[in-house]
Design a protein that fits this description.
The chain has helices spanning about 1-5, 25-35, 40-50, 55-65, 70-80, 100-115, 140, 165-180, 195-200, 220-225, 240-255, 280-295, 300-325, 330-340, 350-360; strands at about 90-95, 120-125, 150-155, 185, 205-210, 230-235, 270. With about 350 residues, it is of the alpha/beta class. The protein has a 7-stranded parallel sheet with strand order 3-2-4-1-5-6-7, sandwiched between helices. Helix 3 (about 40-50) crosses helix 4, helix 4 (about 55-65) packs antiparallel against helix 8 (about 165-180) and helix 14 packs antiparallel against helix 15 (about 350-360). It is globular. The N and C termini lie far apart (about 95 Å).
Length: about 350
C-alpha cells in the first residue's frame, strides 16, 4: 500500500535540460553602451561623407530633435555637409491617401536603382493631434526597396508642423546629398498644406491621382494643379485602364486652362501601374526632359536660389517661435495669460500683444 502511494503519476514531468539564454547578457550590455555613446560632430560628418548610413540616420535624428542643446551640433554637421550637397535631383510626390504613393515610390525607386542611381526617400507620416503618435510604416510598405543597397528610406513624423514638413526635411535633403544620394524623393502626408512646403524644396513636383473615385473634376483643384509639373493617374491596370485613360484626358484638358509656368515647362499627364510597372520608365523620361529644359533656360538654378532664401526666412520664423516658448519668464507669463483669456479677463489679441512686447523688451 505504501509503495502505491509513493508511486508517481504518469503525468509527472521530469526535470529537463535548461534552455540557454537566447540573447547573451554581454551583447545586451554592448548594445546599451553603443546607445549611450553620442558620436561627435566630426564623427557624424566623416561618416556621412564616407557614405555611412548609420551616421546619416543619427545626423537626421539630431536635426529632428527639438532640444535646444542639439541645435548647435546639428548646425555644425549641416554646415560641414553643405559644400558636398546640391548635386541631386529632388522630386516631390503627393496625392490623397489611398492613391498608392508608397507602392508607386517603391516601383519608381527600384527602377532608378536599376539605372545605377542612389535613391533616398524622405517620407513624412502624419502625427496624431490627440496622441501625437505616428505609424511610420513606409519601410513596411516598401519591403523590396528597403532591402536595396542603393536606396535609403527615412520615415519621419510630421509633428506639430502644419504642413507636415519643415526645416528638418529641408536639412535632411542636404545630409542625404552629402552622403552620396543623387535622387531625393519626398513623399508628403497628402493633399493639403504640405504641398506648398514640399514644392518649395524640390525641383520636380509630381501629383498622383486615381480614377474611378468619383467626379474627376473634383480632383482638379487650382492650387495643387498649378504646382504640379506632371500628373500621373496611378492604378491603370486590369479593368481600370479605360477609366484611367479617361481621367488622363480630363486632367489634360484642365491643364490648358492654367497660365504658362515661369519655368517654360508644359505640365504633362500620363497613366501608370505601380503593380505592373507599366509607365514607370516614361515618368523618369519626363523628369529628364524637364531638367534639360529648366537647366538650359537657367530656371532650375534660379529656383534653387529662391528656395534657399525662402528656407532662411522660414528658419528665422521657426527659431523665433522656439526661443519664445522656451523662455522661462515668458512661459510663466503665458500660463497666467491662458487662464485670464479663458476667464474673459483679457482678450486673446491683447494677451498676445502683451507677451510679445515683454519678450522683445528683454
Amino acid at each position: 500500500m505504501e509503495n502505491n502511494k509513493k508511486k508517481q503519476s504518469a503525468l509527472h514531468e521530469k526535470a529537463g535540460i535548461t534552455s540557454p539564454e537566447i540573447i547573451s547578457s554581454a551583447s545586451v550590455a554592448h548594445i546599451k553602451n553603443l546607445k549611450k555613446h553620442q558620436p561627435s560632430s566630426e564623427e557624424l560628418i566623416s561618416g556621412i561623407l564616407a557614405g555611412n548610413i548609420a551616421a546619416l540616420s543619427r545626423a537626421i535624428t539630431l536635426v529632428e530633435s527639438t532640444q535646444v542643446s542639439h541645435l548647435e551640433k546639428a548646425n555644425e554637421v549641416i554646415n560641414a555637409c553643405l559644400p558636398h550637397a546640391n548635386n541631386s535631383v529632388r522630386i516631390g510626390i503627393t496625392g490623397v491617401p489611398g492613391v498608392g504613393k508608397s507602392t508607386f515610390i517603391e516601383a519608381f525607386g527600384k527602377y532608378l536603382t536599376g539605372l545605377g542611381k542612389k535613391v533616398a526617400v524622405l517620407a513624412v507620416d502624419p502625427s496624431s493631434t490627440i496622441s501625437h503618435g505616428s505609424i511610420l510604416g513606409d519601410k513596411t510598405r516598401m519591403e523590396e526597396l528597403v532591402k536595396d543597397e542603393n536606396a535609403y528610406i527615412r520615415p519621419s513624423a510630421s509633428g506639430e508642423t502644419l504642413g507636415g514638413v519643415a526645416r528638418k526635411t529641408r536639412e535632411a535633403i542636404t545630409l542625404c546629398e552629402a552622403c552620396g544620394f543623387d535622387t531625393i524623393i519626398i513623399e508628403t502626408v497628402g493633399v493639403g498644406q504640405s504641398e506648398t512646403a514640399v514644392h518649395s524644396m524640390v525641383d520636380f513636383f509630381l501629383l498622383l491621382k486615381i480614377s474611378g473615385a468619383g467626379d474627376e473634376l473634383q480632383g482638379i483643384k487650382r492650387g495643387i494643379m498649378e504646382m504640379a509639373d506632371a500628373i500621373v493617374i496611378n492604378k491603370a491596370d486590369g479593368d481600370n485602364i479605360r477609366k484611367a485613360n479617361l481621367a488622363k484626358t480630363e486632367f489634360n484638358r484642365a491643364l490648358h486652362l492654367f497660365p504658362t509656368k515661369k519655368s517654360g515647362w508644359t505640365p504633362t499627364t500620363s497613366t501608370c501601374s505601380a503593380i505592373t510597372h507599366e509607365g514607370i520608365s516614361a515618368i523618369w523620361e519626363t523628369i529628364l526632359k524637364f531638367l534639360t529644359l529648366t537647366k538650359d533656360n537657367q530656371y532650375f538654378f534660379e529656383k534653387r536660389k529662391e528656395q534657399n532664401q525662402y528656407w532662411m526666412l522660414e528658419t528665422i520664423n521657426e527659431q523665433l517661435k522656439l526661443n519664445f516658448y522656451n523662455d522661462p519668464e515668458i512661459h510663466k507669463l503665458l500660463e497666467e495669460n491662458k487662464k485670464a483669456v479663458q476667464n474673459n479677463e483679457i482678450s486673446p489679441f491683447a494677451a498676445a500683444q502683451l507677451l510679445l512686447e515683454k519678450y522683445f523688451k528683454k
